[in-house]
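Our preliminary data section would be incomplete without showing what the modeling component actually yields. Below, a chain of 193 amino acids is followed by its predicted structure, encoded as tokens that our downstream tools consume directly.
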Amino acid sequence: MAQTNLSNGVEMLVARHAATEGCQVGVKALSEVKKYSNVDPSDGIWMVGDQFTIPTKDLLDLVVFVAVINGNKVPAIAVETTKGEPKVLYISTLKKTIYEYEEIGGQYVIKRNPDGSNKPLFADTPLRREVLSKETVGEIIESLAGRTFKVTRVMGPFQTSRLKIKIDSLGRRDGYEIIGLRKTYIPVFEEVV
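Predicted structure:
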């Protein structure tokens, strides 16, 4: 399901720009997305050393799209690494925060530290703080335009929750429900200057 919706998002991007040379990054990203069958297509895509440049503002429309994963709309940018590998950069990956979960007695619960506390896991970097300071996804994407980033490390694996949006009887969002557990990673992106 998640992979199909994501593929549809990239296919829309490609169709929108089929008459331009810029759609080639989208075509490559689509083929990359189709290789991954896990629930979170961003997991396992980013490797230490991956480096890429976000296109300049005048070209963003060629590579920005919205994927739908488990009912969640996820803004993304199709990029190509310096090694020529197509990748999909989810904006949420840049500010990724997770809690570790475990299953106890058929219930999914947040894993507690020995002192009883539970702290979120995230990569505390200047880029993450910058992304969190923006008010809209559009502002985030525009601020990234023309800049080069590199994956300096990958944290994990961690076991976290797999969420699905709950919809009420009127078709409105009504929170989330945990539908399982999954392994995830936190890629650490830093700007190359």
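The helical segments are 2-16, 23-33, 91-94, 126-133, 137-144. Residues 2-16 form the longest helix (15 residues). Preliminary results of this kind motivate Aim 1 of the renewal.
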